[in-house]
Amino acid sequence: MRLGLYLNLYDSPEGSGAGRSLMSDAVEQARLAEQVGFEWIVLGERHLHRPGYHEILTSLTWLAAHTDRIGIATAGIVAPLYQPVVLAETLAHLDVLSGGRLTAGFVLGYRPEEFALYGVTQAERVARFEECLTILTRLWTEDEVSHDGKFTSIHEAFLSPRPLQNPRPRLWNGGRVSAMLERTARMCDGWTTSFNELDADLPAKIAEYRSYPRGEGTLGAEVILCREGFCAPTSQAARQSLEAPLRDLYDAYTGWKRTSADASRYTQGWDDIAARSVIGSPAECAERLQHYEELGADGIILRIQPPGMPQADVLKSIEAFGEIIRP
């Protein structure tokens, strides 16, 4: 099973000094994940977060410069917020600088405040998403591109350099509704689930995703599960380390996700959270990973560190997962 490490980029209330320390912690985690056999380090995107949240593209570039082999991925960039040519060029250059290690994951976005911040109408988000990925993919793979779209028009445009990977970096898309699954099959190479997707819903959704026709030029139909993860000597120790900081994060999510259909899942108790996570002793975590592989997952992204968890606990958990996947 291929594992990704979702890195915590939440700043603390102390400000910039703590932020510099935070990125040092992220680099330490990324290097350890590379050493023990993780497939990717993964970043998400958030805006208008009062304590602070580090910008996704510059952070990914920094982490690429401080690692050697591990894949660098996003899960995901809020595509409707971006000018497509700028995003295509930035990600292409990141793939070049990293030596061809980029996987570009996108999401539609759900927070009205973020759309207002970027001057984007939320009702246009699907159309903007599709136009953005169409232009991005064409610029990555074609010598010259002309496109007359609803939001962006370009004439005889090209990128130089283009991405290092041939034919291009892989594209992921995240979400949970049927329209998103069809869009992912048509435009992308992999589906990333929500962290709170219920295990009971996964078989039907995986089957639905893989039933949709693949779009021309797509590179497969990966299923990448996003899961809370923590490995400790015992299940009790794992809960003791993770429960309080994860509960604080979920309490914040109830506000952020007030307009989302899954908001209620962040008010659930520990047993509900653990039932859709990879948490416990090494044996329990290994069993959970096998369970997800049998459900049809091609990889799992683990969010090990909620804000407030000590760095030492995170590093021990990364090492423990490395012992599971190394054989």
From TrEMBL:
Gene3D superfamilies on file: Luciferase-like domain
Positions of the Luciferase-like domain: 14-298
Claim: ATP-binding is one of the keywords in the record: no
The UniProt record lists the keyword Iron-sulfur: no
Keywords: Flavoprotein, FMN, Monooxygenase, Oxidoreductase
InterPro entries: Luciferase-like_dom (IPR011251), Luciferase-like_sf (IPR036661), SsuD_RutA_monooxygenase (IPR050172)
Name listed for the protein in its UniProt record: Luciferase-like domain-containing protein
